[in-house]
Amino acid sequence: MSEITFHDLPLAEPLHRALGEHDYQTPSPIQAQAIPVILEGRDLLGSAQTGTGKTAAFALPILHRIHTQPRELESKEVRALVLVPTRELAVQVDRSFEKYGAYIDFRALVVYGGVGFETQVKTLKKGVDVLVATPGRLLDLHGQGCVDLSNVKVLVLDEADRMLDMGFLPDMRRIISLLPKERQTLFLSATLGHSVQSLAKSILNDPVTVSVNPPSSTAEKIEQQVLFVRSNDKAELLAHLLKQMEEEDEAQLMLVFSRTKHGAERLVKKLHKAGIKADAIHGDRTQGAREKALDKFRAGEIKVLVATDVAARGIDVKGITHVVNYDFPNQPESYVHRIGRTARAGEEGEAITFCSDEDMNVLWDVEKMIRQPINIIKDHPYHCTDLEDLHLGRREALKKIVKQERPRRRNRGGGPVRVRKAF
Ligand code: AMP
Fold first, then answer.
1. Ligand 1 in reach of 214 Cβ (< 6 A)
2. pLDDT over 90 (residue 182)
3. Could you tell me the residue ranges of all domains in the chain?
4. Which of 102, 133, 300, 387 makes an SS bond possible with 138, Cβ 3.0 to 4.6 Å?
5. In CATH terms, are 6-211 and 222-403 the same topology?
6. Which residues are paired to 188 by β-bridges?
7. pLDDT band, residue 44 (cuts 50/70/90)
């Protein structure tokens, strides 16, 4: 978090009130950097992923503008358009607007595919201040004459890299062609690879670039590995790895992440059955029990500590050699935070991630965020080839997209063209 407070930012009072209610005190780095720039009316190229506070970074100045420049909406008019890749993100962004704009008089609407048109069309008819939309559904609505985009003042492309990965480039281009040239454009992306930058260049006007470094730089000393495994085999796989390390006399102090408290308890029981000393820390255990478990772990009396994310927050144990994502983290950012528990203070560490069927999308997001493929370990009895093939297929597809887009790049500056790898 940055030094300044929200009160240093010239946002309208009702926004400060809403932020206060949610106990937001300090703007996150992306907010501190982007909000003043957006308030000035400049275009923005923001490199930030979910978890950095990027939604408020664009929602607050948009709401400020709506509040300070009130006017009647024309029928079907849209003042601010936020394009997002998925319905989940659409809903999340819409909720954020409602949350920060609780004391502001404005109309927002979220539209995405797979649900009926009726309510969406009805609200659009009255005009909206903020429209959060996935590209396909927006074009459908436009095709039916339900929305007029010719008066959009602010365009936000949120998770632009993901939209490109999902093949939305033609839809995005079509939508942009329907907008007025004179507008403010805010372009947010977790990664700034070649295709993302070339899209940004083509639609932004003298943008200010704001980049929030992903915490991934901490991960350089960490050897990262992913193991594809069926959910039911995960406990056996962990026991197998532990036994193997013991046989090879490999030093180990292992922090294992479990998604749930029950899962953590179950895993500890299974490890005990396999003859492995382990303990768990999670929200259902008393403070005393947690501290005892931590002390034993610090002293090396138990080599394996199973923790939920919440319980692991703030624990600082030196010498953790392995972090195991027994359950895949829900958010790519938690991956980076979790694995940062090892390789502290210049030491080296290993991060081992179990990836099952339901984790494939997050694994993909993680690789994009850390901008490198994670080493796949298949030398174990529970390796799941289907999942590995699926993942390798995705990596190949991305490489092809990048290759296809490359020849179109013009070297305007005349200097050498730097070719970035997909990862
Ligand atoms: P985002 O990156 O926009 O998805 O936001 C991540 C989470 O951080 C959301 O749950 C926000 O409600 C929360 N958040 C965003 N900005 C702040 C802030 N300045 N202070 C506290 N929480 C925040």
1. no
2. yes
3. 6-211, 222-403
4. 133
5. yes
6. 46
7. very high
The 10s digit of each residue's pLDDT in 238-265 is: 999 999 988 887 778 999 999 999 999 9
* Residues sharing a CB contact under 8 Å with residue 247, sequence separation 6 or more, in sequence order: none
Average pLDDT of the chain is: 87
- Residue type, position 288, single letter: G
What is the position in ligand 1's atom list of the atom closest to the CA of 31? 19
Among 61-70, 174-183, 316-325, which is the least confidently predicted range?
316-325
Q: Is residue 52 in contact with ligand 1, taking CB distance under 6 Å?
A: yes
With CA atoms as reference, report the closest residue to 311 among 261, 252, 238: 261
Region of 175 (left: φ > 0; alpha: ψ -120 to 50; beta: rest) is alpha
CA distances from 15 to 10, 73, 93, 125 (A): 10, 21, 16, 27
Residues 6+ apart with CB under 8 A from 389: none
Ligand 1 close to Cβ of residue 49 (< 6 A): no
Instruction: Report which ligand 1 atom has the smallest distance to the Cα of 27.
Output: 19
Ligand 1 contact via 93 beta carbon (within 6 Å): no
Q: Decide if pLDDT at 220 tops 70.
A: no
DSSP codes, 377-408: ---STT--HHHHHHHHHHHHHHHHHHHHHGGG
Q: Strands of 375-376's sheet, edge to edge? A: 278-281, 304-307, 254-257, 322-325, 349-355, 222-228, 375-376
142 pLDDT tier (thresholds 50, 70, 90)? very high
Q: The CATH number of 222-403 is which of 3.40.1440.10, 3.40.50.300, 3.90.226.10, 3.40.50.20?
A: 3.40.50.300
Domain 6-211, classified CATH 3.40.50.300, yes or no: yes
> Which pLDDT does position 408 carry in this prediction?
43
Q: Identify the DSSP state of 222.
A: E
Q: Which amino acid residue places its CA nearest to atom 20 of ligand 1?
A: 24
Q: DSSP string covering 8-61, please?
A: GS---HHHHHHHHHTT--S--HHHHHHHHHHHTT--EEEE--TTSSHHHHHHHH
Question: What pLDDT is stored for residue 53 in this prediction?
Answer: 87
Question: Position 406: which residue type?
Answer: R
Nearest CA to ligand 1 atom 21: 24
